[in-house]
Write a structure and sequence with these properties.
The complex is a heterodimer.
Chain A (H helix, E strand, L loop, with lengths): L7 H19 L3 E4 L4 H14 L8 E5 L5 H14 L3 E5 H7 L15 H12 L3 E3 L16 E4 L27 E4 L7 H11 L10 E8 L2 E4 L13 E7 L10 E3 L5 H10 L17 H8 L3
Parallel strand pairs in A: 1-2, 1-4, 2-3, 4-6
Antiparallel strand pairs in A: 5-6, 7-8, 7-9, 9-10
Helix pairs in contact in A: 1-2, 2-6, 6-7
Chain B lengths: L9 E9 L5 H11 L5 H13 L8 H4 L3 H6 L6 E6 L3 E9 L5 H8 L4 E7 L6 H12 L4 E7 L8 H14 L8 E5 L23 H7 L12 E3 L2 E3 L11 E5 L4 E3 L3 E5 L3 E10 L2 E3 L1 E3 L3 E6 L10 E4 L5 E12 L10 E6 L2 E15 L4 E4 L9 E14 L6 H4 E5 L6 E7 L17
Parallel strand pairs in B: 1-3, 1-4, 4-5, 5-6
Antiparallel strand pairs in B: 2-3, 7-16, 8-9, 9-15, 10-14, 11-12, 11-16, 12-13, 12-15, 17-21, 17-23, 18-19, 18-22, 19-20, 19-21, 22-23
Classes of the chains: A alpha/beta, B alpha+beta.
């Protein structure tokens, strides 16, 4: 037996660090999309490993839907400060006011409205690469995503225009106006993310852990009650012990009933889970191709 | 399911290739399903699609064929990556279509795989598609191969048929560079020898497919002999606290490096000793491929992105004239004499192809001479010259230091992938110059 053997977490970490360094070297104005969610927290940890003791060679960017969980924004701001990183926040509210984004009648969630907001931010700062925490195991339209995901002048993703990626070689060449979305966590699964959080002792926003919250049953899932989302007349408000598995717009992020108050408990829970993490996301349920459609338009 | 201990779990990457009828999707579905890696909502979505299609059986291909055009046409057009885990290992499947027009996808999926899973329909035996997949696996240097002889239920679980097919395959193996091959008789549909041992084939005493995937020894798949680290990025904090810090960051693409060891920087040939090796605040005594690390050297020598740190005992080649196998991936065929960009590790340099030595007919595996053209999905041997010298090892010696891609300067598209061969006349290595200050 030889002692030169990497565990799966070491392998994935090394791959992610390699991708982050390629981004810093190949692009002039990259940014890292940091929401305060668990995947972006892992990505930030990889960035520290890639570039310390120097400063991170890119600013952090967050598209605030105005429907973000307040706990998340608080965490996001504090983390950026601790790392000494520049944080840029652009809001859907602002994009709506400027007419860059327009709401469709009856649309509650602002996930779709993040698209024009993000594209406007990319144009404003002339970003040529945006690092995101998306993973291939999340959804089947993502299963064919590249590490370097090419976007045209309109920010659109065309599955047929993606570049072959072999070994650890990534082609980041662009002409002005185009940009690249880069996903260093492409090969990670939800379980890998949790195991890494445990191994690296990473701090998380408290909504990932079981807590008491007022929820209503809607569309087969528990949705948090808040000012934006008051309960309807026929709905019963319940106070349950819940946590979130994945975080999106507060209007479409379902909570799961859970007793998991530590990372160890969550790992136990994930290992016996019978529903994918995005199973709680109403935005993915619109049609079998809803993720593909949003990606084509420029979603992360 | 017990919780795997993340401190000891390895990752195995494997490829599958195949078309609609050979049971590939059924096999993947079986692996995912029986290892409990399909979730209820995925299963529900599959059933919803099946109900809409008029109550037909659940089509497991819908699980992997994520793009709408694929579902409509009932084909896989791209490499799909799938993930599953058992208590003993984690797995990444690169699932690729098997038809000749998707050779480039197979090549892409094969480039990072430890193992190739070749599927053979027991009724049809070794057909061109199985040969093609085996050939590509060998060309891309995949260290292990499992040949699954599928649909054994349709040949009465016959041992004779299994042996016959195995002989067919062995007859063809000498033309390939395959180091480790295992045969497993299975029925993906019925579940024989996939995850559970088959009761229908008492004559077979080997492991089940999953058992083999969990056991195959992969720690020596990486080159651990010849230390190479292409410098990706130079870390210079320029802060008061880290005033003199100059770290060379990169992923080790071969071998092992130790603190205190003397290394050379190529192509300049300067030398220094390793002062420290880091991953963040963790200092290491030694590091190995494929770790991503930061290395500091004892001496202040000029090193930038694209330079390679190498061991002194075994030096890589440093040449401008090259010989390589090339898989063309673009609809626009290779044009001899035209400038392209070659990307090898962090390096990009201009390249002009001079000669197509031969192309390989991947149906018959015969070499065809006298064709100067390499079109979409063609594989051939080429000679070319790069503007800047490349520092590399032959692909056969180190996959991760002998592979390159070709980029079209006008469209920026990746148009080919190549595997370097040893140069015919190895150029002399740069003379040792003691520039140490």
């Amino acid at each position: 037996m030889n002692k030169y053997k990497l565990t799966h977490l070491d392998y994935l970490e090394s791959e992610g660090i390699h991708v982050l360094r390629e981004v810093a070297a190949q692009f002039e104005r990259p940014t890292l999309m940091f929401s305060g969610g668990k995947d972006s927290i892992v990505m930030l940890r990889l960035a520290e490993k890639a570039f310390r003791p120097a400063r991170l060679p890119f600013p952090l960017l967050n598209v605030d839907t105005g429907h973000n969980f307040p706990e998340l924004n608080e965490f996001r701001d504090r983390r950026a400060k601790e790392l000494g990183a520049k944080l840029i926040v652009r809001t859907v509210e602002d994009a709506l006011n400027k007419g860059i984004a327009t709401q469709v009648a009856g649309e509650l969630s602002r996930n779709r409205l993040q698209i024009p907001t993000l594209l406007a931010a990319i144009e404003e700062f002339q970003f040529d690469a945006a690092l995101g925490g998306a993973r291939r195991d999340e959804e089947k339209a993502r299963a064919k995503e590249r590490f370097f995901s090419f976007r045209d002048e309109f920010g659109q993703w065309d599955p047929k225009k993606q570049r072959p990626e072999l070994w650890n070689i990534y082609n980041g060449r662009l002409i002005p106006g185009q940009h690249m979305r880069v996903f260093p966590l492409s090969n990670w699964t939800e379980m890998d993310v949790w195991e890494y959080i445990q191994r690296e002792k990473l701090e998380l926003p408290n909504i990932y852990f079981a807590h008491q919250r007022e929820v209503v049953r809607r569309g087969g899932q528990w949705l948090p009650v808040n000012d934006l989302q008051p309960p309807k007349a026929n709905e019963e408000v319940k106070t349950l012990q819940v946590r979130v598995r994945t975080i999106g717009d507060i209007m479409s992020t379902g909570c799961i009933e859970s007793e998991a108050t530590t990372v160890e408990h969550i790992i136990q829970e994930v290992s016996t889970a019978r529903v994918t993490e995005r199973g709680g996301r109403a935005d993915d349920k619109v049609s079998e191709s809803s993720m593909e459609d949003r990606k084509r338009e420029g979603y992360f | 399911m017990s919780n795997p201990d993340p401190k000891s779990i390895e990752l195995l990457r494997f490829t599958t290739a195949g078309s609609v009828d050979d049971g590939k999707s059924t096999l993947i579905g079986r692996l995912l399903h029986d290892s409990k890696s399909i979730f209820e909502d995925q299963w529900d979505a599959l059933q919803r699609s099946a109900d809409l299609a008029g109550g037909s059986d659940v089509n497991l291909a819908n699980l992997t064929d994520g793009l709408r055009s694929e579902r409509e046409q009932g084909i896989t057009i791209d490499v799909a990556y799938r993930y599953f885990a058992t208590p003993r290992r984690k797995f990444i499947i690169a699932d690729t279509p098997g038809h000749v027009q998707y050779t480039r996808n197979m090549v892409t999926g094969a480039s990072t795989a430890n193992l190739a899973l070749v599927l053979i329909d027991a009724r049809h035996g070794v057909v061109e598609q199985s040969k093609r997949h085996a050939y590509i696996s060998s060309l891309l240097g995949i260290p292990h191969m499992v040949v699954c002889i599928n649909k054994m239920d349709l040949v009465d679980y016959s041992e004779d048929r299994f042996r016959e097919i195995r002989e067919q395959f062995y007859a063809f193996v000498p033309r390939l560079d395959i180091r480790d091959v295992t045969f497993v008789p299975i029925s993906a549909l019925k579940g024989d020898n996939v995850v559970e041992e088959s009761k229908n084939m008492p004559w077979y005493h080997g492991p089940t497919l999953l058992g083999h995937l969990e056991d195959v020894y992969i720690a020596s798949d990486w080159n651990l002999k010849d230390f190479r680290m292409p410098v990706q990025y130079v870390i210079r904090p320029l802060t008061d606290e880290h005033h003199d810090f100059r770290g060379f960051a990169g992923q080790i693409t071969g071998g092992v490096v130790r603190k205190g060891e003397e290394v050379t920087v190529l192509p300049s040939g300067k030398r220094s000793a390793v002062k420290s090796i880091h991953i963040l605040d963790k200092e290491l005594d030694e590091a190995f491929s494929p770790q991503s690390v930061v290395i500091q050297l004892e001496d202040d020598i000029d090193i930038s992105r694209g330079d390679t740190l190498s061991s002194l005992d075994t030096l890589p080649y440093t040449t401008q004239d090259h010989d390589a196998n090339l898989c063309w991936m673009s609809e626009q065929p290779l044009t001899l004499g035209r400038k392209y960009i070659l990307k090898h590790g962090p390096n990009g340099t201009k390249v002009v192809f001079r000669e197509v030595v031969h192309t390989v007919d991947i149906e018959t595996l015969e070499e065809k001479h006298g064709t100067a053209v390499l079109g979409l999905n063609d594989i051939g041997r080429v000679k070319f010259k790069t503007m800047a010298p490349l520092v590399y090892d032959a692909y056969r010696k180190n996959r991760n230091f002998g592979g390159f891609v070709i980029i079209d300067e006008a469209s920026n598209e990746t148009v080919a992938a190549g595997m370097l061969r040893s140069p015919e006349k190895p150029a002399p290595v740069p003379e040792h110059k003691d520039y140490v200050i």
